[in-house]
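Worked Example 4.2. Consider the chain below.
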Amino acid sequence: MTPDEYCQQKAAQSGSSFYYSFLFLPPQRRRAITALYAFCREVDDIADDVEDVAVARTKLAWWRTEIANLFEGHPAHPVTRALLPFVAPCGIDAARLNEIVDGMEMDLVHHRYADFEALRLYCHRVAGVVGELSASIFGYTRPETLEYARSLGLAFQLTNIIRDVGEDARRGRVYLPLDELARFGLGADDILALRGGEAFVRLMQFQAGRARGYYESALASLPAEDRRSQRAGLIMAGIYRTLLDEIGRDGYPVLQQRIALTPLRKLWIAWRTWIRS
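Applying the procedure from the previous section yields the following structure tokens:
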């Protein structure tokens, strides 16, 4: 299996909505973004699946060494070998890759966030930075496009948090800011016990409103000159905003189930967004 095939398999197996945004890209950019996505999956799987914190830290430290190897020109892992040809042409830098690992390390010890500022740092590291790297791979001419990419990454992560409230609670994690839980008369224990009710729905409506604000801010900051090159990100925005609306229409049943769009619906949104952008 070649490094590119490894990354392609990693992306396809995940079932992520990101996969659908890659389909319409030119081959070289598709190879680059698929390799970046595979890198994110590798380090995220460590944070999610390795229960022993010391072992997880060791594995993430290995990835930091591998990032250094990548920029020295001799990577060993299939993902970094697939990334190597695109480091210079696509503006991929070690600092951002390491910042993604920083975010995964936060996941090993921080299972509660006191307020949104603390949560926003986490979201920036695991999603905003990925947005910046993705925008660089897609190509841009204006610095405002990086602002768009950061905001869009935060919007995606906030949507994920809303979608995965119940799933995260079953793993002992609460990503909803504690001060905002208290504002709606709830605590982390209520989330961990999967207690819903009207207060929870109001809390979710508030969280969804914030996510929509980031989508609007992102799209408003994307320069017209770069809109065409950033169509893959716009596809993701279309898919994720539709998902957020679907969750809201269903009354935010996220404590009991994980709501997802069908592959056919994602593909339809991707095609429609591509031809309209």
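The radius of gyration is 18 Å. The mean pLDDT is 94. Compare this with Example 4.1 before moving on.
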